[in-house]
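Researcher: Good morning. I'm working through a list of sequences from a screen, and I'd like to move beyond sequence-only analysis. For each chain I'm collecting a predicted structure so we can compare shapes side by side. This is the next one on the list. No need for commentary yet; just the structure.
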Amino acid sequence: MKKLKVKALVSIGMLSSIAYVLMLLNFPIPPFPSFLMIDFSDIPALIAALIFGPAAGILVELFKNILDYFLTGSATGVPVGHIANFIAGITFILPTVYFYEKLKSKKGMTFALVNGTVVMAILMSVLNYFVILPAYTFFLNAPAMSAVETRQLIVTAILPFNIVKGLFISLVFMLLFARMQTWIGKQTAYRSI
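Model: Good morning. Structure tokens for this chain:
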């Protein structure tokens, strides 16, 4: 049991470091505003959650954002974007892991990733409307957007961006999962012993 805990802690640390490096390799997608960037840093968190459980995935999401905030900083000077990235990550990986645990197969993983994408896109739209965009307005002393402008930004940019981001992550993860499924299954089996 102690050996498993050490393996989990070391793995979480390594996956957090990989996630941080992947977070640095972000890129915009032309039709969306430049502050919305896609990166593949949720993939190591998803692997951690599949092998060691949801708490491990949450820790990888937390550590990668802490590392990025302290080592890279924030363009705005406040960690609102990092908090939003953390929330987006966990709202993607938790439903994905939950559904995959119910349907352990490649089709099950595809279904789980689609559900994770939908949950992330919807929850992030709601949180952007009520919490994240108002937090940026508050901390940056920026002029507040009207409710109509906020809704328009969410419907035309944030919601479709999160769907596209989830689909990109899902596509890359499925390419990895096709090769790693057996290994992930063995690692998960050791966890339940």
